[in-house]
Amino acid sequence: MAVFTLDDTLSAPQLATTLSAPFKGLAGFGRSLAADGGVVAIGAPGDLDDEPDAGAVCIYRGSAPHDVLQVIASPVPGECAGFGSSIAIRGDRLVIGTAQGSDSLSGGKVFVYRLASIDQAAVLEEVITGPEGPGFAASLAVTPSHVLIGAPALGGVDAPTGGALARSLDESFRSPDINGDGVVNGADLGALLMRFGLPCSGPTQPCAPADLNNDGFINGVDLGILLSAWG
Q1: Do 183 and 135 share a domain, yes or no?
Q2: Please, which residues have CB within 8 angstroms of residue 150's CB and are 6 or more apart in sequence?
Q3: Could you give the number of structural domains in the chain?
Q4: Which domain, by its residues, includes 21?
Q5: pLDDT tens, 15-60?
């Protein structure tokens, strides 16, 4: 990916630097990108063929020497195609979309991460599943309170009307430190697994502390959030 300098005194943009994929095998590197707060995110969603790569997103430091901070791999390889096809960043929120679901007619997903700092690993907070039909998360934007999701096939495959969906980020996500001892470890994993598969109808329910994304269930999404914050 090339980075250009824009200067009113120059007749044309000048090449400042080039950001390369940190290792081989990142198909589609540079197909999407976003930057904010000293962080640059570059998508490598892979080949969108019948057997697409799972995809990844590379996080770079925004200032020179633009070193690679981390590479976020798809948390659901084999379930969604084209992880990193769309990206948005605002503040400590990083939002990543897939191109499609398990096949070309399935809706994709949006993954909401929190970047506590540019030097710490991104923590998965929420997974937003789109309606059936291709194109969900074709474009993304994030505000302080919402994720905006472009859905060009909204309305159905036969007669798509297109549109955009807004998902609130105002909900308070629970800490993966379930027992409150200051570290995410086996004790928290045990507390989650004891409640795994249980529905939660409200904050007073016994399983509620382990419902990390507040979707009313203790499931694989909560497990993924906990493991992303391990240690």
Answers
A1: no
A2: 86, 135, 137, 138, 139, 140, 164
A3: 2
A4: 2-170
A5: 566 777 888 778 888 889 998 878 899 999 875 444 455 789 999 9
